[in-house]
Amino acid sequence: MTTPKLELLLWIVTAVAVWRTTAVLTSSKIDPTILTTGAQAALPDLPVPDSTLADAARILVDTDPFRLNRTPPSVAFGAKPVTDHRLSTPPLRLTLHGVVGGPPWRAVIDGIPGKPTNTVVAQGATIGSLVVVEVGADSVVIQTPDTVLTLFLSARIP
Q1: Domains of the chain, first to last
Q2: Which residue(s) pair with 49 in the sheet?
Q3: Over the stretch 34-85, which tens digit does the pLDDT of each residue have?
């Protein structure tokens, strides 16, 4: 079947469906009293104390995730507040001195706070607030509380 014939057939089917739906909707007779009495019977009149409504309104306003002032929160949802480490600690001066072994690699790093020089670390190691994310053949990725550092070897020794 060619495209024009198929399109014509689909238009005819659509027109018949619209005509049939209109005929069914206009010929059906719905008693409006059934709708109103059914709705009233489904919802009995229950007295609601004013204090309950006031408490519900207070809770709704206090926990409204769509704040009316439309300002972003100071902390992301579910995140713990982070203290500003930039003001309290000097910047890290980490240096990658070497990579030892073969997969799995181990890195020799200098400048880790509280550790001696030339500390050997492996992937997944946690040292204070530093996490060694990845150790490669010539680089190390370290995650700090506020950034991710990538250390490279200055010269590669074969």
Answers
A1: 91-152 (2.30.30.830)
A2: none
A3: 555 555 555 556 666 777 888 888 877 777 766 666 566 677 777 776 666 5
